[in-house]
Amino acid sequence: MWGLKVDVYLIGHLTVDIVVEGGNMRRSLGGTVTFGSLAAIRHNATPHVVSKVGRDFPDEYLMYLGRNNVDLSYVRLSRYLPTTKFKLVYREGGERVLYLLSRCEDILSSDVPLDKLKGNIAVIGALIGEVPPSVVQEISEHASLVVSDLQGYVRRQSEDRSIVLASTPEAKLLISLSDVVHAEVAEAKAVFGDLPPAELAKRIVEGGAAVALVTLGAGGAYVATKQRVLFVPSFPTRVVDRTGAGDVFTTVFAIEYHRLGDYREAAAYATAAVSFLIEKPGPDGLRSRWEVKRRAEKILNEIREYPLDEDRRSR
Question: E strands within 113-199?
Fold first, then answer.
């Protein structure tokens, strides 16, 4: 199974992130499609980025991705709008405040190589709703597996440009159109209310997804199907940088679930991949599938599994 060719089409904006932390400011390449594509390479998959950027997008970022064997054939240049840019301000205690500085054009169905999706994975990595549900609908009619991140469909910009979370019709529509949906616990609560994480995962499944992934950072993750809920503990390690953790979790889960057909093993691989990522800044912590596999085997032994109706009784 390791030799199985896997192509992953990652659809969403490449971004320029301005990171402010401890009085220091730096610029970096960001976006779900960035971290997802770099993780895909290490899991023996071929990543294809489908995105739009402005004329202000740094050439060195494209060169960096190209050198890492990321296919950029479907990255389009906007003639009128700048690249999507975020400002990430990290405060004492680890709190992060996100500001939207600029937004590029939506990604349309004409930008997506729909004919290439048959038998392959599509990861919807929208950051600020740039992949409309109508496009996700078309993608779902072609791809073998559609894996979506909820974050881009619950983010709204306030008057000071900061990002707040809110329930939207688009979020629930995205859930109904996807095979697998990932949400950080705060994002899931924005849609379904202040419920326990296992119940939030169940609600996502009831909304139409076959598999729900609700992550809690150091608190682990809940993985739900129509039959069961898994609790997957995080792997104990030293945390340097959590940037991209949700993106890597989502993409690695997608690849391994497509490859192995087992959501339990896929969750263990995803958790292990994240445990390596957060040990170093940016994507530097990403490791090969062989290294991830050894941690995944340890995590498998710690996964708790129980029926959905049992979860209801325990609350």
Answer: 121-124, 145-149, 155-157, 163-165, 180-184
Predicted structure pTM score: 0.93
Is residue 248 included in any domain, yes or no? yes
Q: For residue range 236-257, what is the model confidence (pLDDT) as tens digits?
A: 888 887 888 999 999 999 999 9
Phi, psi at residue 65, to the nearest 5°?
-65, -40
Please state, in angstroms and rounded to a whole number, the distance separating the CA atoms of residues 118 and 213.
Answer: 24
What pLDDT, in 10s, does the model give residues 58-116? 999 999 999 999 999 999 999 999 999 999 998 776 678 999 999 999 999 999 999 99
CA 116 vs CA 48, 74, 112, 154, 165: distances in Å = 10, 11, 9, 29, 34
Collapsing DSSP states into helix, strand and coil, what is residue 191?
A: helix
Report the number of distinct structural domains present in the chain. Answer: 1
Whether 1 is covered by a domain: the verdict is no
With a CB cutoff of 8 Å and minimum separation 6, the contacts of 314 are: none
Distance CA 146, CA 117 (A): 10
DSSP 188: H
Backbone angles phi, psi at 118, to 5 degrees: -60, 125
**CATH number of the domain where residue 138 is located:** 3.40.1190.20
3-state secondary structure of 34: helix
For the chain, give the longest Cα–Cα distance.
56
How far apart are alpha carbons 164 and 155 in whole angstroms? 6
Domain membership flag for residue 189: yes
Residue 221: give the domain boundaries. Answer: 6-314
DSSP E strand stretches across the chain = 6-11, 15-21, 24-30, 45-53, 71-77, 84-90, 96-102, 121-124, 145-149, 155-157, 163-165, 180-184, 211-215, 221-224, 228-232, 304-307
Map residue 225 onto helix, strand or coil.
Answer: coil
Residue 309 lies in a domain: yes
